[in-house]
Every structure is written in C-alpha cells, then in structure tokens.
Specification:
Layout lengths: L1 E5 L8 E5 L1 H4 L1 H8 L5 E10 L4 H4 L18 E12 L13 H7 L1 H20 L4 E2 L17 E3 L6 E3 L5 H9 L5 E8 L11 E8 L1
Parallel strand pairs: 2-4, 5-8
Antiparallel strand pairs: 1-2, 3-4, 6-7, 8-9
C-alpha cells in the first residue's frame, strides 16, 4: 500500500490519497513512480480514514457530519487511477526569496495567512457595505510627510511621480467632494529603513464617514 498528500484546485486542505493492490491495481505502481509535488489527474472513491481501535472510542464526534459536511482531514481518496500531467523536478530548491511561490506550496502557515487576509477583506466589505469603495491613484505628486517617498521617474526631464505613503490626501479631497462614507484597501509605500515592525509596502483599510 502507499499514501500521498494531494492538493487540488479549490481545496484548501490536504487530502490523503490511499492506494492498495486489491483496490488500486496499476494505480499503486503508478503512484510510487511519480515524483512528489507533480501535477496529476486522479480518480477514486472517498472513504473515512481507518482509525485504530485505541483512538476510535476517544472522540468519534469529529467524524460525524457537521451540517452535511465532513472535514477532509478525516477522509481519504481510495485511488482507482492516477495520471501524471507534469513531473516535478526532484532537485528543485525552494528556500530562496525568488521561490516564494513554492514556499507557499510547502508551508501551510503562509497559505493560511493569505486565506485569512482574504477573509478579513470579505468581512470588512460585508460590514461596510453602506460605504462607497473608491480606488485612489497610485501615482501622485510628491508631498512633504514624515517618511521618505518612493519616486517614479517620467520621460519628462526633471519630473517624477511619488508613490503614496497613505491615501490621506485623496481622502480629504473625497470628503470635500461630498463622499461622506468612503472606504478602500489602500496600498501604501514608505522608503524607510528595514525594521521588524516596518516594511516598504503594506495595505491599510482607509475609512472616512
């Protein structure tokens, strides 16, 4: 028999693949031959994971459907067939900053942070639905504020844009224009020295009402 972890499109949790000679046939051999993290197409049957007798009596409530659903952590896909679509190189490293997208694949904590950020944005929009969401420009004129600005050169000699440190200037203009309930998820840029509590690019929820 063999086990493997499977991540699929639209699946936020890890799903366990299970292959055994009597139920999987050639799929067991194919699964063992495929490199980890390769793109695959699988077919099989969902079933509850086998639980040892010592743990079955401890907490069976976790295996019961919750509003018609069972967590993927308690299920396995009993493999019938597996086709390798694209082989993942075994010698590929994924620990550098340039390979951050691969770190997300292997580090569940990073993926959970992205999902949490998405949930916060959805929650904010739902609870601020009476506010007008406005996207303010990224390129703006340079204004004297506390932090240094990032400058964006133009093809006009001696002229440059700056990236906004905050949407404060736009917020004031919008309020003066009669937009009294305004919100946005604003990108901000500050040319500051690197510190644990600061970074050059961040997003803030800007609200005025």
């Amino acid at each position: 028999m063999a086990f493997a972890d499977f991540y699929g499109e639209g699946i936020s949790q890890r799903l366990q693949l299970f292959a055994r000679s009597d139920i999987s046939g050639d799929a067991l051999r194919d699964l063992r031959a495929i490199s980890a993290n390769s793109a695959v197409n699988v077919t099989g049957t969902f079933a509850l994971k086998f639980e040892p007798k010592a743990t079955k009596s401890q907490d069976n409530s976790q295996l019961q459907p919750d509003e018609g659903h069972v967590s993927l952590s308690h299920l396995e896909l009993r493999l019938k067939n597996i086709d390798c679509l694209n082989t993942f190189p075994k010698d590929l490293e994924h620990h550098t900053a340039e390979d951050r997208h691969l770190q997300i694949r292997f580090d569940s904590a990073l993926k959970q942070r992205l999902e949490f950020r998405s949930k916060v944005a959805a929650f904010s929009r739902q609870n601020l639905k009476d506010f007008t969401e406005i996207e303010t420009p990224i390129l703006f004129k340079s204004t004297p504020e506390g932090a240094r600005e990032f400058l964006v050169p133009t093809r006009a000699m001696g002229h440059a844009y700056s990236l906004p440190q905050s949407p404060q200037q736009y917020k004031q203009l919008l309020m003066a224009s009669g937009i009294h309930r305004y919100m946005q998820f604003a990108k901000c840029f500050r040319d500051e020295d690197h510190r644990a509590d600061r970074q050059p690019e961040f997003t803030q929820v800007s609200i005025a009402g």
